[in-house]
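Structure in, sequence out. Go:
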């Protein structure tokens, strides 16, 4: 799966094999072998690839290429998969926390739709929207 992910992520960023190789400090032939599945990147190369593509190493290695291939709209993100722990907790990927400036202690509202799934929303944003709708309906 990593071979397909490397190729897909490289193309998504409009990088040639040569340019990707330069960015992570390997030869173009090495990148070609990874993409062909005839060899695998070592751990240090995986870390450099993940950083270059702005994905986690877990997603670089295991994320379904079909998810990576989805077209991304401006302001919309796929941050990868998370695992629900035995106590019900989940850990948000660092990239998601950074993108949305989520800090320890921040309050997030978990909302759900049986047809669409779950989402986390900033509590203040949700309350502002609710107050705005309420004011509109009272006019």
């Amino acid at each position: 799966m990593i071979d397909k992910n490397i190729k897909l992520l490289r193309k998504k960023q409009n990088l040639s094999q040569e340019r990707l190789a330069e960015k992570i400090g390997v030869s173009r032939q090495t990148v070609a072998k990874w993409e062909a599945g005839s060899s695998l990147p070592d751990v240090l190369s995986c870390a450099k690839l993940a950083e270059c593509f702005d994905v986690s190493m877990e997603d670089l290695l295991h994320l379904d290429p079909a998810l990576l291939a989805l077209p991304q709209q401006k302001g919309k993100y796929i941050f990868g998969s998370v695992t629900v722990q035995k106590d019900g907790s989940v850990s948000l990927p660092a990239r998601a926390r950074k993108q949305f400036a989520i800090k320890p202690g921040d309050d997030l509202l978990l909302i759900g739709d049986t047809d669409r799934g779950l989402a986390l929303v900033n509590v203040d944003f949700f309350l502002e929207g609710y107050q705005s709708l309420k004011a509109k309906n009272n006019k």
